[in-house]
Specification:
Blueprint lengths: L6 H15 L7 E7 L3 H13 L4 E7 L1 H10 L10 H12 L3 E6 L11 H14 L1 H8 L5 E5 L3 H7 L5 H15 L7 H22 L3 E5 L5 E6 L6 E2 L2 E2 L5 E2 L2 E2 L4 E3 L1 E11 L4 E3 L2 E11 L2 E9 L1 H8 L8 E6 L5 H5 L6 H4 L5 E5 L14 H6 L8 E5 L6 E5 L5 E6 L2 E2 L5
Parallel strand pairs: 1-2, 1-3, 3-4, 4-10
Antiparallel strand pairs: 5-6, 5-19, 6-12, 7-11, 8-9, 11-16, 12-14, 13-14, 14-15, 16-17, 17-18, 19-20, 20-21
Helix pairs in contact: 1-2, 4-6, 7-8
The structure holds zinc ion.
């Protein structure tokens, strides 16, 4: 469904995804995953890919209803191995240097009632059988980009009180504005956005703060340690051959992985956390020596405790992310029920696995070495939002001095 009034903006958005998000080069192959319920927009993307000189365009259609039926009824063996043709399609495209573009329009409730062990089995199988494909993205050989596309079921979840057509139009508008694609020159808007990211990332990396101190009216008073040689990242990414691209559109966060054993104090949630189909609301976690030692919640305390119980690493932090309250996603006030959007809505922390790229040389380290560098290891990674409109974050230096990073929820001092 393409609301007629948005036709031009959606064309601009399709062009932005191909030319800026994927930085497509003439002759390069495109592997596009798209929801069937957003087919008209997917076709616009395909048209833009050819217009940009693509060498081949392959579309892998995703259908929530068919997927759910598969998860419900297929024999267990179907989740233990990826069909050869499918593995060949993905691995082959990655080997030929394809850009991998995914349009995300999933129905947030589309997998209700599916046995979660089937997801685990399938995830294990695709990562094993499509290793070339995933390594291509993880190790910077292939360009990849995930962006939103409105579908009726997703739109009705976000705007339950509107008619389907109104909900879809409103969701498209939110997608376009948060992706900075609703103006006359989205590519230029992203050039500016990217430059702002780069300046702050470079500044944070140069400062090498020893710790961050968070305070907010809601009771948050929390200090988290940063590693020696920690690396902040955010905005775009670069392939090993030097192509600058955007893995997520929108993107608002600048993040690093903290010291797994240095976190003290209490953090309060700023937004509800959707976890395994349940909601955790108004919650807090208290840390001692990097470990979550106590927690409370107005709703969903058992769910919160189930996150901490995944493994030892789930009680430590793997990510600290800085997102200004002035960003378009936070300002929209919309709960998208989609990680791509909701994780970019506020400053957050994550319990669980840290990122190897967030310590110098980390991509070449094995797990033991990463742990020795205080990067947390875990089977899980769960983000939770702590960024309020009054949040203050001070950067602490080893000599005891400090500098403001955030004031009243937004970049402050030299970071403003
Ligand atoms: Zn994050």
């Amino acid at each position: 469904m393409i609301p007629v009034s948005l036709d031009n903006q959606l064309k601009n958005y399709a062009r932005l995804l191909i030319r800026t998000g994927c930085a497509l080069k003439p002759g390069q192959e495109v592997l596009l995953t798209a929801p069937v319920d957003a087919a008209p927009f997917a076709r616009m993307v395909v048209e833009e890919a050819w217009a940009a000189g693509a060498g081949a365009v392959t579309v892998e259609w995703a259908d929530d209803v068919v997927s759910r039926l598969h998860y419900l009824h297929a024999p267990q063996s179907a989740f233990e191995k990826v069909p050869e043709w499918k593995a060949l399609q993905r691995n082959g495209a990655a080997e030929r240097g394809a850009v991998i573009l995914s349009l995300d329009g999933e129905d947030p409730d589309g997998m209700a009632g599916v046995d979660p062990s089937r997801f685990t089995a399938w995830s294990r199988s695709v990562h094993r059988d499509c290793k070339v494909f995933y390594d291509g993205m993880d190790l910077g050989r292939n360009v990849w980009c995930i962006a939103g596309a409105a579908t009726p079921k997703w739109a009705k979840k976000v705007f339950p009180n509107l008619s389907e057509a109104e909900a879809v139009e409103k969701l498209w508008k939110a997608i376009l504005s948060t992706a900075r694609a609703d103006g006359s020159d989205p590519a230029l808007a992203w050039k500016d956005h990217s430059a702002a990211f780069q300046r702050r990332v470079e500044l944070l990396n140069a400062r090498q703060f020893h710790a961050l101190h968070y305070t907010s009216q809601n009771g948050t008073d929390f200090t988290v340690g940063l590693n020696k040689d920690h690396v902040w990242a955010g905005g775009g990414a670069e392939t090993v051959d030097g192509t600058w691209f955007f893995p997520n559109m929108p993107t608002e966060e600048i993040f690093t992985s903290p010291h797994r054993c240095r976190a003290e104090g209490v953090v309060h949630s700023a937004l509800p956390l959707n976890y395994n189909g349940g909601l955790i609301e108004d919650f807090w976690v208290r840390f001692e020596e990097g470990k979550a030692v106590d927690c409370g919640a107005k709703q969903g305390l058992d769910l919160l405790k189930s996150i901490l119980a995944v493994d030892e690493g789930a009680t430590h932090l793997g990510e600290v992310a800085l997102v200004p309250h002035a960003s378009p996603i936070a300002q929209s006030g919309i709960l998208f029920y989609s990680t791509l959007y909701d994780e970019n809505a506020a400053c957050h922390l994550a319990l669980g696995k840290g990122f190897p790229e967030c310590v110098k040389g980390g991509l070449e380290m094995d797990e033991e070495t990463l742990k020795a560098h205080n990067i947390n290891l875990s089977a899980t990674h769960v983000d939770f939002m702590i960024g309020t409109a009054d949040l203050s974050i001070m950067g602490l230096l080893p000599d005891g001095s400090s500098a403001p990073i955030f004031q009243n929820g937004n970049w402050a001092g030299e970071f403003a």
